[in-house]
Each structure stands twice: as structure tokens, then as C-alpha cells.
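User: Hey, quick favor. My workstation is busy. Could you predict this chain's structure for me?
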Amino acid sequence: MAQPRQELTTDSNPLQRILDNIRELGLDQNLIELETKGYTTIPRVLSEIQIEHAKRVIIARAEETTTNRVDINTESGEGYEGMTYLPYLLYDDEIFEEILLEPKPLALITYLLGESCLLSSLGCHFKGPGGAALPLHSDNGNGIPAPFSAISQVANVNYALTPYSREAGALAVVPGSHKLARQPRLEEMMLGGKSGNPDAEAMNLSPGDAVVWHGNTWHGSFARRVPGIRMNLAVYFNRQYIQTQERHGDTVPSEVLARHANNKRFEVLLGGKQPYGWQKAGPDFTVMARNPRGLYD
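Assistant: No problem, here it is.
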């Protein structure tokens, strides 16, 4: 697997570094889509081996959490009805460290949030038949007031681990909604049926595809109407000054840090550049000196 840039240097313009990386990875068209539509799809990011490995680990977590057996092909809704969120997966298996560092989605996330961005959460929306659709919303719902900044404060990568279609409970996205700079109104939130938002598009994805979206973009998901389980991996990021959903930083297991000892980007994603949260000893000014200086570093 190709590796992302390992060092976060300051010897050139950070925006130019990011754009050079996007060009090297063949993502120029994706960048245009991200700017104009608020989201973009990168096909076949994950290999079949990665997909199957991640699915095995997530199924094990689901069975441990619920004590219900999982059959991803035939689930009727009796054991898993609607959506169950499985959080804090990063430390369940090394496969999630690998997926976190996938170069193509991470390059676009870096464009949106800068090189100092943090991993906020990594989990699975584990969806069986039935239940309700997830209403359209912006990820700025974590306390960011409207009108939203045009500058992305948070951003998401959604990996499909099983096929996505409307009847299978697909992700739904409203193109261009990031430019509205607000949450949808009640009548704009609905999915499905005659009252559903007509601008919401069902994302028809194959396993291994990744969707990256701007934090302002309206998205949700349709209810699953066929047997089986829809599995994803939602990797959510935020700018350094925003509180992450999950706790990392000083809680990262030592063996995880050891595996990535030479990867400064991994350290930063998990809070290694975060200067706040000091106690009686006060701030570490050597870390404070590494604070972001603009939109991209």
C-alpha cells in the first residue's frame, strides 16, 4: 500500500504541498467535485483483502456488543433492526490504522482541514433491515452555529464495506448543500416517500469505494428494505481547535505509537500536536509553537 507523506515540513507553502500531493495521486477532478458539489467519490480505495478483514473485525464487535449472531447476507431485522453505531474501532485491529492512513482520502481531508487536523472518530454504521431513515443533516451539528463558515471545520470519509443502493440503505447526499451554510429545515431533512427531499441522491457504491465530504454538506441515509447488513466505516476528522468525538492523545496504546514511530502524520492525527489540556505544570511551549499558522498547515 502506498504511504502518505511522512514528514510535515515547513520548507514550502502548505497549500502548494497539499495541491502537489493531490495532483500526484490523480485527484484533481475529485477536488473540483469537492468544491462544487460538496462531496466526491473515490472508487476502489480499499482492496478486497482490506474489506474482508475490516468486515470480520466489525462483525466480531457487533456480536460482542449485542450478543446476536450476524449473517450479513440474510439478516431479517430480528437481530439487527435499523442502524447500530459501533464506535472507537481504531484500536480493535491494525486494519483500521491502515485505513486511516489511506493516501487518497487523507489528501482530500488535508485540503479541507489542514495538515494539523485530528481524527475525531472512527466507527461503523451497522445497518439491518427496517428502522427509520437517518434524516439529512450537516456534521456541523456538534455545536457550530449558523451561518457556517465556507471553510470546512469538520469532514468525513465514508467507506462502503458492502454494496450501497437506495433499497440497501445507502448514504444520501444533497449536491451543493455545503454552500447554503446552514442545517436543513425540517421539511428539507426527510428521506424517502413523497415527502422526501427531491435533491437527495442515493450513493450507489461498490465495496471499497470512499466518499469524502465537506463538513457543511447535507447527508443522511435511507432505511434498508432488503435482507442483510449494510456496513461502512465512517472516519470523521476536525480542525485542531475543535473537540474530537473520541478520546485519543494520551490514551493511544504504546504499541500503536510504536508501529508508527516514524510517521509524524499519524502522531498528529491522534493529537500529538494538540497543545491544550494542560494541568498544574502548565503549557508545553514547544508544542504551542507548532500551532497551525493558517488554513492548511
